[in-house]
Amino acid sequence: MTASPPASPPAARWRHLAVGLTGLVAACAAQNGMPFLTLALREEGLSLPQAGLLVAAPTAGLVCALLLWGVLADRYGERLVLSAGLAVAAVALTGAALADAAVPTGLWLLLAGAGSASVHAASGRLVLGWFPPEQRGLAMGVRQAGQPLGVGLAALTLPRLAADGPGGAFAFLAAGCAVTAVLVGLLVRDPARPPRTAGAPRPASPYRGPVLWRVHAASTLLVVPQFAVAGLAFDWLVRGAGWSAAGAGTLLAVAQAGGVAARLGAGSWSDRVGSRLGPLRQVAGAVAVVVGVLAVVAALTPGLLGPGVAAAAVTLAAVATVSPNGVAFTSVAEQAGSAWAGRALGAHNTAQNLAAALTVPLAALLADGGPGYPAAFALGAVAAAAAVAVVPARTAEPAPPPVAVGVP
User: Fold this and answer.
1) How far apart are CA 157 and CA 396, in angstroms?
2) Does the structure show a pLDDT above 50 at 407?
3) Gyration radius of the chain's alpha carbons
4) What is the spatial distance between Cα 86 and Cα 201, in angstroms, rounded to a whole number?
5) What is the pLDDT of residue 345?
6) Does residue 117 sit in helix, strand or coil?
7) Domain assignment present for 377
8) Backbone angles phi, psi at 121, to 5 degrees
9) Range of the domain at 247
10) What is the pLDDT averaged over residues 80-84?
11) Tell me, what's the pLDDT at 7?
12) What is the pLDDT of residues 243-287, one digit of tens each?
């Protein structure tokens, strides 16, 4: 890796990371917390595939908006994009809380996903701009911990708030996005960008080589096991393994703490070894094994295996499947450089969330109207195994370009 550029004051770096993390927690609770409302939605008269469409609606909104937010972040800066997007998400989730039918609820959730997509396109740029290369893996791991933290928060709160219908859960998510939009406006400052010499050509596209394309592809494949587990684990624990809704939500919330540790560990590991791609390949292999074990456990539950084994298998899978994200995001940001980071992160998230939007309904169909939960989890294991082959070799990884680090 290249030497660190001049460092900004640590307090400013960590302040921006904390605000970016808070925004990601609020956004991911809204985007990825919908599986914890499946029981409430089914009590409203929806089938599991129909509920799966509503669960996937915020992710579909992400797909529609990520690239646009990335372009805006590259052009106008992170602060404006983050605050505007979170405000849109807050308004949309308020609309979902007030809606009284499935179709308008789905449309409001689609808009909520589109607004909250700004967090994925812009907060990663804060890490790229405020942290030197030798700290970015850990910093991006902290930032990416927002996803399991958001899911954990949703697992603890949404099933309880939805006891009388999903409206209360949507209102809670709206409040979280509104508060973080205000925090961004008050505390975030756009990092400095490398000065351009007059007459100098624009930075070349990082997509002229294969590395960035392959990182996108591998990460997209790794989304399949992540969302097959995230989308179905709660429903399977309750309906297939005998857990109560509150108990399953608590278990999955605790599992997210392990996911946070896994992301931090993977990011720190990539800093120590000076590579993002080597750790990414090894983590992908671990995901394939762990999710494959979960598929076997699901096939043997409840006949031969009890709820304790089911809980252990789900917990390991929930931890493993979220662990690669931070390393992959760091690789994308470094390969793209400051001039392209917003667009590259937007493209990365677009591909990932398109896969997520397709995975949840497909997995629900396999579980409810097809071979069952084991087949849905096996689909994730096969996708992770394919990702191992797609990750570029470490020898193809150039050193990250030097990036100017922000000043307060």
Assistant:
1) 44
2) no
3) 20
4) 34
5) 77
6) helix
7) yes
8) -80, -30
9) 10-194+208-396
10) 93
11) 52
12) 888 888 889 888 888 888 888 888 888 888 888 888 999 999 999
Map tokens 């456990």 to a residue.
297
How remote is the C-alpha of 182 from its chain's centroid?
Answer: 22
SS (H, E, C) 178-221: HHHHHHHHHHCCCCCCCCCCCCCCCCCCHHHCCHHHHHHHHHHH
Tokens at 305, concatenated: 């295996």
Asked if 59 and 174 count as a contact pair (C-beta separation under 8 A), the reply is no
Half-sphere exposure of 186 (CA within 13 A, CB side): 9
Q: Token digits for 77?
A: 């800066």
One-letter amino acid of 281: R
Q: Output the CA angle 150-151-152, nearest 5 degrees.
A: 90
Q: For residues 290 and 336, what is the distance between their CA atoms, to the nearest angstrom?
A: 31
pLDDT digits (tens, 9 = 90+) for 294-332: 999 999 987 677 888 999 999 999 999 988 887 888 888
DSSP for 332-401 reads: HHHHH-TTTHHHHHHHHHHHHHHHHHHHHHHHHHHHHHSS-HHHHHHHHHHHHHHHHHHSPPGGG-PPPP
Neighbours of 163 (CB within 10 A): 14
Whether a cis peptide bond, with omega within 30° of 0, leads into 324 is: no
Cα 194 to Cα 185: distance, rounded to the nearest angstrom: 24
The answer to whether residue 202 sits within a structural domain is: no
Distance of CA 317 to the CA centre of its chain: 15
Hey, what amino acid is at 199? Answer: G
Domain membership flag for residue 153? yes
Q: What is the CATH number of the domain that holds 331?
A: 1.20.1250.20
**Cα–Cα distance, 127 to 349 (Å, whole number):** 16
Q: Residue 383's pLDDT is what?
A: 97
How many structural domains are present in the chain? 1
Put residue 9 in one of left, alpha, beta given phi > 0 → left and psi -120 to 50 → alpha.
beta
Residue-wise pLDDT for 30-55, tens only, equals 998 898 898 888 888 888 778 888 98
229, part of any domain: yes
Distance (Å, whole) CA 213 – CA 75: 23
